[in-house]
Amino acid sequence: MNKDKVYINKVIELFKLISEGVENIKCPNCGSENARIFYTKSRKDRYGIWVRCEDCKNIEHADTKISPVGFDEKKINKRFQDMDDHAWRKADELVRRKNKN
């Protein structure tokens, strides 16, 4: 298996663990146990799960339509929330432009 597939499988396993409520996770990039989970809530039915490694600074992100296990308003990260909001605004613009044509 090539390196990219190994990494992708690590990321898939990471989000699977998070969906099961596991909070003590390892960074898929460096293996550090110093990875932290953050959340965003961009729309009524859209949540973002963000994982940032405090050691190597790697960031992973996934969206979900259901409230993630462990979601807490206190764990919403302003920087990640701003990034999500910006991405959703851009997506909305693209959809509106496409629908006009």
Describe this structure in words.
By secondary structure, the chain is α+β, with helices and mostly antiparallel strands. Helices cover 40% and strands 23% of the residues. It has two helices and three strands. It has helices at residues 3-19, 78-100, and strands spanning 35-43, 46-53, 59-64. A three-stranded antiparallel sheet has the order 1-2-3, sandwiched between helices. A hairpin with a 2-residue loop joins strand 1 (35-43) and strand 2. The longest helix is centred in the C-terminal third of the chain and has 23 residues, at 78-100. The radius of gyration is 15 Å and the shape is globular. 14% of the residues are buried. The mean pLDDT is 92.
Question: What attributes characterize this protein structure?
Answer:
alpha+beta, three-stranded antiparallel beta sheet, 101 residues, globular
**From N to C, what is the helix and strand string?**
HEEEH
Distance between the termini: 43 Å
Largest sheet: 3 strands, antiparallel
Radius of gyration: 15 Å
> Can you count the helices?
2
Please give the number of β-strands.
3
The order of strands across the largest sheet is: 1-2-3
| Shape category | globular
- Helical content, roughly? 25-40%
Q: Helix/strand-derived class?
A: alpha+beta
Q: Any low-confidence stretches, pLDDT <50, length ≥5? A: none
Beta-strand content: 15-25%
